[in-house]
Input
Amino acid sequence: MRTYLELLYEFLNAIGVISFAISGAITALKKKMDLIGIFLLAFLTSFGGGLLRDLIIGRIPPSFLENTLYLFIVVIVTTFATIFVSHILKHMYILTIFDTMGLGIFTAIGTFEGFLADFNFAGCILTGFLTATAGGMLRDIFAAEIPAVLRRGIGLYATAAICGAVVLTFLLKAGMPADWAMLLCVIIVAAVRFISILKNLELPEVPYPAPPSADPFQKRKEKSV
Output
């Protein structure tokens, strides 16, 4: 019989898969991809981060290939998003909500997996961050866009994941029950992301110096003449 923690883990994982599947499918539809492209982007967004995490941990085969339920979830959710895309696009804030939910949940799951693998502090944060963001990065790369995690103007995306992973790692190492620690991580990630969007908060931009007006080698030749 499965424990309460195992049930919570599977529930959070399912919600995260649903959230990222919708995000991937809508991105593909906006790019006017065909049906194969829509399903491919949905699968990449949902499982890309978990696949990379499992490779780092050394889990073979990856977890999403062991539970067929998650594959069916992506197929059903992607089909639903494709059929009702016009209704979804009328409420774009829904995409932000789903994307943020997936970000928080996969940050918690990835960090917890790193903790179970007995990784150090940095390793737990890394597995949490990659689980949360790698799928979205693959989605954006295949959609020929700069990954959202690297862009300004979308709120503190990567920062939210890092904050959640740091807090969760600290709580787990300190002995806090995993269920409460993971739920708190999801709340922290969502709060940081939503507050940053509402308040237009961004990390400071690093100024790029203006390029020289002329080739320095050409200037040297002119002086010598």
Notes: Residues 4-30 form the longest helix (27 residues). The mean pLDDT is 85. The radius of gyration is 21 Å. Residues 82 and 127 are 31 Å apart (CA to CA).
